């Protein structure tokens, strides 16, 4: 049988109910998916608006929760940054559902490869065993691995808005309303809970003064060093508004999405485009690095103490972003308790979308929404500088800045992108970022008993 | 109080605050909470001097307390991690490290510096944090296994994770604690399990046995270690599924020789 049209919709319905589809349908689906993916470049171009997601790891019910919180496909345009499989109990259903959606709505969902989308890793971390258990043979695992080899290595999001159009959502219970910035101000970051209630909001501050100097009584008119030039150059709603022309302040650079991070072999995005990706993830080389490396509080490049793998510091990210006209790198790969973590003055963010990871970590998950440039057409930017204490909104009840990170050195400037302008000319403003934070799906939705340790006579 | 980035502080996903049971003079307490948030992780990193494992259950513990004397034996993640080598002297390398580095050295001679070297396998010889007196002393008295094999009712049971790290998908390191309390005695097992794929397997068990009536406490420490390849070959000859076995320390233990063993005892009155 062939899988297309109504069959595909049937498969989607079945998978949404967390029921595997027959092996012959999987084969057909994987074949279709490969035909589609082979046409994609190593770096897929994606237009905002888009919702960026991190690791899923077979937590099917939490993926359903993600769709509930972020909107369904095809209404919401999704970009998943890999690690669909392993660890969780439903890698198969999770990956096949995403793949079905990809085949059904190819322009509304982008899948890129994570380090777990590999034969070697899946044999150790669960996906192989799961396929064997659910089908009695390794065929389905083999079909899926063939698809893995065709997944893109990264995505480049263009046309993201610099500021968010504020949500009308209610304020979350424990949010101090006074800590929210003026509704007229330009919203750079907003955090919403799973019910769409505002937990936190941060206004962009365009001045580049130090964070203490401008507290309180700064002159609103003089606090912006950048003249309020016309905010857009291109026609609204087209991707052409910004990318070529760097003269407009309201023009955010592109956002590179990749599972792990950067590689010392890659200094331009074009070099990623040149890689031969259609293979098992190698143990070394640029392709390996993109899927495996991590940002860290170091200068330049470093070797992981494990003896393989790279770590990269803030200077590497800033340099790469500048050279490639990026405003942000979004990556996944590392568990973060809060669901997302911005580092290096918001030039890179880790997004983690598997709540209560491995069913025992108790962490929350997040997805990152980037709006479409022009969605706030007619919006007049006010150069009101510091209002209500500037960074006051960043973290509820604490003074941690968005760039708070492990290092926390004395020179750690907690302001947003404004600082960057000092060291590097014309750095791009980051796009407006809306994080939706959610918890694990309720236990009763997953059809398995609540996790209570079973007493056993261990010795 | 809220947490970084406005993420909700409480996730009612799992775990519990303190639960405890008292049998005669002994009070047993466990605490199970989610992994630490960014703030406490930063604090712990500073205090430990090394980066904590990826999943760090820093609030959790299992504790045995002798109420009349105030003697305590507690198992927690911080103390266990404080015993991890922080110098990089006993640092392991992942299996493909050599291949990786040879290729890399040609390309990037300037990237040589290993960032903050330490034993990232988080191997610890932690046998618990003992406070009060008298203290555990070497003994020849073994744990009476026969008494533990009896199907006495289990009045209290818990399984407390202290830390876990996936070794960047090169295996697993985990430290966890199990405890079962029967009417007349208890057994606690704290196990460190580390498998570095294609390199090494380690199991380090600390068993604590308490006989309530006599106030006798026995602590047994058993360290097992073997090269991965040797274990894999032994498993291949056993007719078992080697991959499944390599993930199950309970069944794996018998294939790994003991490299260190100690017995200690204290009688609390």
TrEMBL record, chain A:
<dbReference type="Pfam" id="PF00149">
    <property type="entry name" value="Metallophos"/>
</dbReference>
<feature type="region of interest" description="Disordered">
    <location>
        <begin position="205"/>
        <end position="250"/>
    </location>
</feature>
<comment type="similarity">
    <text>Belongs to the PPP phosphatase family.</text>
</comment>
<feature type="compositionally biased region" description="Polar residues">
    <location>
        <begin position="205"/>
        <end position="216"/>
    </location>
</feature>
<protein>
    <recommendedName>
        <fullName>Serine/threonine-protein phosphatase</fullName>
        <ecNumber>3.1.3.16</ecNumber>
    </recommendedName>
</protein>
<keyword id="KW-0464">Manganese</keyword>
<dbReference type="InterPro" id="IPR004843">
    <property type="entry name" value="Calcineurin-like_PHP"/>
</dbReference>
<dbReference type="GO" id="GO:0004722">
    <property type="term" value="F:protein serine/threonine phosphatase activity"/>
</dbReference>
<feature type="domain" description="Serine/threonine specific protein phosphatases">
    <location>
        <begin position="112"/>
        <end position="117"/>
    </location>
</feature>
<dbReference type="GO" id="GO:0046872">
    <property type="term" value="F:metal ion binding"/>
</dbReference>
<feature type="compositionally biased region" description="Low complexity">
    <location>
        <begin position="217"/>
        <end position="250"/>
    </location>
</feature>
<keyword id="KW-0479">Metal-binding</keyword>
<keyword id="KW-0378">Hydrolase</keyword>
<dbReference type="InterPro" id="IPR047129">
    <property type="entry name" value="PPA2-like"/>
</dbReference>
<feature type="region of interest" description="Disordered">
    <location>
        <begin position="390"/>
        <end position="433"/>
    </location>
</feature>
<dbReference type="InterPro" id="IPR006186">
    <property type="entry name" value="Ser/Thr-sp_prot-phosphatase"/>
</dbReference>
<dbReference type="InterPro" id="IPR029052">
    <property type="entry name" value="Metallo-depent_PP-like"/>
</dbReference>
Automatic annotation (TrEMBL), chain B:
<dbReference type="InterPro" id="IPR051330">
    <property type="entry name" value="Phosphatase_reg/MetRdx"/>
</dbReference>
<dbReference type="GO" id="GO:0031929">
    <property type="term" value="P:TOR signaling"/>
</dbReference>
<dbReference type="Pfam" id="PF04176">
    <property type="entry name" value="TIP41"/>
</dbReference>
<dbReference type="InterPro" id="IPR007303">
    <property type="entry name" value="TIP41-like"/>
</dbReference>
<comment type="similarity">
    <text>Belongs to the TIP41 family.</text>
</comment>
<dbReference type="GO" id="GO:0005829">
    <property type="term" value="C:cytosol"/>
</dbReference>
<protein>
    <submittedName>
        <fullName>TIP41-domain-containing protein</fullName>
    </submittedName>
</protein>
């Amino acid at each position: 049988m062939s899988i297309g049209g109504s069959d595909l919709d049937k498969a989607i319905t079945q998978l949404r109910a967390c029921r595997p589809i027959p092996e012959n349908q999987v084969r057909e689906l994987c074949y279709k998916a490969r035909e589609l993916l082979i046409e994609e470049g190593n770096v897929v171009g994606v237009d905002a608006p888009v919702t960026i997601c991190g690791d899923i790891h077979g937590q099917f019910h939490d993926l359903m929760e993600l769709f509930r919180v972020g909107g369904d496909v095809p209404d919401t345009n999704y970009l998943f940054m890999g690690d669909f499989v392993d660890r969780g109990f439903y890698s198969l259903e999770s990956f096949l559902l995403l793949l079905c959606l990809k085949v059904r709505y190819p322009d509304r969902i982008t899948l890129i490869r994570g380090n777990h989308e590999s034969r070697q890793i899946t044999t150790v971390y669960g996906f192989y065993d799961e396929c064997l258990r659910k089908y009695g043979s390794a065929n389905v695992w083999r079909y899926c691995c063939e698809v893995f080899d065709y997944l893109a290595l990264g995505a480049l999001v263009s046309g993201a808005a610099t500021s968010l159009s504020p949500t009308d959502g209610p304020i979350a219970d424990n949010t101090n309303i006074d800590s929210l910035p003026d509704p007229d101000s330009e919203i750079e970051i907003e955090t919403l809970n799973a019910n769409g209630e505002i937990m936190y909001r941060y206004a962009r501050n365009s001045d580049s003064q130090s964070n203490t100097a401008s507290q309180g009584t700064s002159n609103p008119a003089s606090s912006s060093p950048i003249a309020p030039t016309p905010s857009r150059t291109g026609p609204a709603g087209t991707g052409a508004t910004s990318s070529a022309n760097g003269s407009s302040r309201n023009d955010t650079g592109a956002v590179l999405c990749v599972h792990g991070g950067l590689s010392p072999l890659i200094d331009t995005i074009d070099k990623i485009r040149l890689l031969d990706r259609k293979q098992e993830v190698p143990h070394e080389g640029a392709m390996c690095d993109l899927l495996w490396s991590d940002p860290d509080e170091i200068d330049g490049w470093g070797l992981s103490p494990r003896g393989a793998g790279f770590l990269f510091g803030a200077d590497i990210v800033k340099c790469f972003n500048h050279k490639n006209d990026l405003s942000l790198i979004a990556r996944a790969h590392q568990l973060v308790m809060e669901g997302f973590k911005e580092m290096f003055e918001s030039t890179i963010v880790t997004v983690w979308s598997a709540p209560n990871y491995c069913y025992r970590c108790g962490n929350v998950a997040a997805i990152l929404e980037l709006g479409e440039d022009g969605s706030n057409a007619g919006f007049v930017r006010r150069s009101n500088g510091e209002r209500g204490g500037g960074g006051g909104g960043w973290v509820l009840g604490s003074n941690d800045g968005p760039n708070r990170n492990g290092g926390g050195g004395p020179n750690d400037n907690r302001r947003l992108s404004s600082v960057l302008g000092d060291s590097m000319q014309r750095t791009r403003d980051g796009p407006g970022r809306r994080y939706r934070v959610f918890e694990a799906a309720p236990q009763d939705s997953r059809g398995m008993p609540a996790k209570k340790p079973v007493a056993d006579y261990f010795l | 109080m809220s947490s970084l980035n406005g993420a909700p502080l409480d996730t009612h996903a799992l775990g519990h605050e303190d639960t405890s049971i008292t049998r005669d003079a002994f009070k047993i307490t466990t605490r199970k909470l989610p992994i630490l948030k960014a703030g406490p992780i930063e604090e712990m990193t500073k205090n430990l001097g090394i980066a904590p494992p990826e999943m760090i259950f820093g609030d959790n513990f299992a504790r045995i307390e002798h109420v009349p004397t105030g003697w305590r034996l507690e198992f927690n993640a911080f103390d266990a991690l404080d015993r991890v080598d922080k110098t990089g002297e006993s640092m392991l390398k992942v299996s493909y490290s050599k291949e990786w580095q040879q290729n890399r050295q040609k390309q990037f001679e300037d990237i040589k510096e290993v960032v903050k070297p330490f034993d990232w396998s988080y191997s610890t010889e932690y046998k618990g944090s003992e406070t009060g007196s008298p203290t555990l002393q070497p003994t020849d008295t073994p744990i009476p296994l026969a008494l533990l094999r009896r199907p006495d009712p289990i009045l209290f049971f818990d399984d407390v994770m202290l830390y876990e790290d996936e070794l960047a998908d090169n295996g697993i390191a985990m430290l966890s604690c199990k405890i079962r309390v029967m009417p007349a005695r208890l057994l606690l097992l704290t196990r460190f399990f580390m498998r570095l794929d294609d390199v090494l397997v380690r199991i380090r068990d600390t068993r604590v046995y308490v006989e309530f009536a006599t106030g006798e406490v026995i602590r047994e420490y058993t360290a097992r270690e073997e090269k991965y390849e040797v274990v894999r070959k032994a498993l291949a000859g056993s007719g078992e599924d080697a991959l499944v076995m390599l993930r199950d320390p309970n069944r794996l233990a018998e294939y790994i020789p003991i490299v260190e063993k100690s017995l200690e005892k204290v009688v609390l009155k």
